[in-house]
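Possible regression after last week's pipeline update?

I re-ran a chain I had predicted before the update to compare outputs. Posting the input and the new output here so someone can diff against the archived version. Not blocking, just want to make sure nothing changed silently.
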Amino acid sequence: MQRVSKFEKVSLEQFKRDVLDNYDFSDDFIVICHQDLSLPKRATTQAAGYDFHLPFDLVLNPGDSVKIPTGIRSQIEDGWVLQIFPRSSLGFKYKLQLDNTVGIIDADYYNADNEGHIIAKISNNGDKMVELKKGDRFVQGIFVPFGITMDDDTDARRIGGFGSTDK
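New output (post-update):
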């Protein structure tokens, strides 16, 4: 197997900013969550997906949608992309879905102004409350090679973070 990436934690400062943008947690709690972060791993030798773990407990009522700062970034080789999918068990059992269906993490996102922090937004499209615990696997990332057209002449460089390439 070709090795194409390395997962890392984002800095505590970046994690705090992104958590506090969405949640009302204490600084001490955020520090503990950051310390406890585990890097994504495959569950078996034949698994394609790297499982991302929840940094804290979540409760999603039907219709709820939440942003989840994973605390993780990925240094990716050129010519590869990390695709983020919901764990199939959460979609199948509870109708939890990623709001953008599939997350696309480009190699240059690593150097973005948000440190390339991977943030997932999920929604509960089911009819039951779902409780997820800190450490639960909730999304998985799969590395995929990609190609470009023969006449591609793109020379722009990423500056911003999430959703910035069209600005």
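Follow-up from reviewer: compared with the archived run. Residues 158 and 165 are 7 Å apart (CA to CA). Marking as no regression found.
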